[in-house]
Amino acid sequence: MFKARFRSLLALTLAFVATVLVSCGGSPTVAKPPTYTPAQIEQIQQYVSDLEKVQERLPELAKLIQDGNWVFVKNFIRGPLGELRSKLSYVERNLLPQDKTKARETSKELIESLILIDEAADGRDYNKAIRNFGVVQRELRSFLELTPQA
């Protein structure tokens, strides 16, 4: 009698466990990686276009540095490059999470190098200016590579 009761209880317990496992198991859901919407890409591309125009104008800054035209170096940084920080910031905020950290580091390095060029212009330090100009070029190119393509 004890064996029969034990078997019944065991069968009932196994049936309950099986039911719970089947109902909770379900099919695994695979989370889709985040992507850009067409509207987001369009907005980002407007700012990327401005950043590409800045990139096209960088040889002008290099020429000013080479010529030692320090007043115009400072004017160029404040003029055509004056809104660079805000454009970088806008794009950075709208990137996917996995790209934000790298974009933040890149834009920070770029802006710091522009500040150092400005300081070099104050001190008429050609070597410091041209060295940081190379960093600006490299970091802007790296930043643009992080942006989504249209």
From TrEMBL:
InterPro entries cross-referenced by the UniProt entry: PsbQ-like_dom_sf (IPR023222), PSII_PsbQ (IPR008797), PSII_PsbQ_cyanobac (IPR017487)
Region forming the signal peptide: 1-31
Transmembrane segments: none
GO CC terms, sorted: extrinsic component of membrane; photosystem II oxygen evolving complex
Annotated Pfam families: PsbQ
Protein's GO biological process: photosynthesis
Alphabetically ordered keywords of this record: Membrane, Signal, Thylakoid
Domain of life: Bacteria
Location(s), subcellular: Membrane
One Gene Ontology molecular-function label: calcium ion binding
Protein name, per record: Photosystem II protein PsbQ
